[in-house]
Design goal:
single chain, mainly alpha, 74% helix, globular
């Protein structure tokens, strides 16, 4: 069985489980004849399941795009200052224009995330080419600095709870119909990455190679930054920071399939959805009927996967 159909079959099974697991006992068949069960399913369970799938898929694709842009597999949207920059943008809009509509906050978060990611790219281009491990270290330092600025401003303006919600929650318990639809924008941005996959792959070979093949490195870089920024901003705005998905999933798929972005991006998206939905189900079952945030579960599972990736010899080298 091919990898993508097998992964989609697993995702379908996890989706059915997600629709039926919760504090209220509801089955899909029951929802066809019970209005209360149908209400729970359509207003809570289905939006939550879709939100988890969209978030996992979009973050995984954003991770593979970012790794292609910076030519380093040890970075992700959550380790380059992108998420913290989106939070800073949301915080600025909340302070300066508290009555602004949601689309204004979305644009502000996306622009701030793009600027933060661009700053990270500018920083790492000044690092020695051979010092590969300095790239993720620079990203972690930049994330810490921007996060500290956002936390300080939030503390000074009594908005620290908002900052913590954006940077530390990472959970889907509050997702209902009408409160997750921004994630479809993230899904569209991730889909755009698939159409531009060949351009990102060529840029990953170096600016001179891209120029020689007729591409504008700056334009491709801006497109990639926009994809990463929009995905991260939508996730931060909707459910908070989700760690490790954009870091470990691209590495897992690359070890199985190699570096063909055109072929691997759909697999990366499905694997990201499978990983996040699995962790969400674990968080819902460990202390049932109470929940552990998926960000906490991923902090443990993602760290274990990342250590395994570091110490295991890759199949493709």
């Amino acid at each position: 069985m091919r990898l993508l159909p097998a992964a989609m079959l697993v995702l379908a099974g996890l989706s059915v489980a997600s629709l039926t697991i919760g504090a209220a006992s509801v089955s899909i068949l029951e929802a066809t004849r019970d209005p209360w069960a149908a209400l729970v399913l359509m207003e809570s369970r289905l939006p939550r399941t879709l939100a988890v799938i969209l978030t996992g898929a979009a973050l995984a694709v954003a991770g593979v795009v970012l790794q292609a842009l910076v030519r380093n597999r040890f970075v992700g949207p959550e380790t380059t200052g992108t998420a913290e920059s989106a939070t800073l943008g949301l915080l600025a809009v909340t302070i300066l224009f508290p009555a602004s509509p949601l689309w204004v906050k979305m644009v502000a978060a996306s622009l701030a995330a793009m600027l933060g990611t661009a700053l990270f790219v500018a920083v790492i281009r000044r690092l020695p080419v051979r010092e590969v491990m300095l790239v993720p270290i620079a990203g972690l330092v930049l994330s810490g600095v921007i996060g500290a600025i956002a936390t300080f401003i939030g503390w000074q303006t009594d908005l620290l709870q908002y900052v913590n919600g954006w940077l530390m929650s990472g959970e889907f318990s509050g997702v209902l119909a009408g409160r997750y639809e921004l994630l479809w924008v993230a899904a569209v941005a991730a889909g755009l990455a698939w159409f531009a996959a060949d351009r990102f792959a060529i840029l990953g070979l170096g600016d001179s190679v891209a120029t020689g093949l007729g591409l504008s490195p700056g334009a491709v870089m801006r497109l990639g930054l926009a994809v990463v920024a929009v995905v991260t901003a939508m996730v931060i705005t909707t459910v908070g920071l989700i760690p490790f998905v954009g870091l470990v999933v691209p590495n897992i798929v690359a070890r199985i399939m190699g570096d063909n972005l055109r072929a691997s991006i759909p697999v990366v998206a499905v694997f990201g959805a499978v990983l996040l939905l699995t962790c969400d189900l674990i968080g819902r079952l460990i202390r049932f009927p109470y929940e552990i945030p998926v960000g906490t579960i991923l902090g443990v599972v993602g760290a274990a996967i990342f250590l395994w990736l570091l110490y295991r010899r890759p199949a493709h080298g």
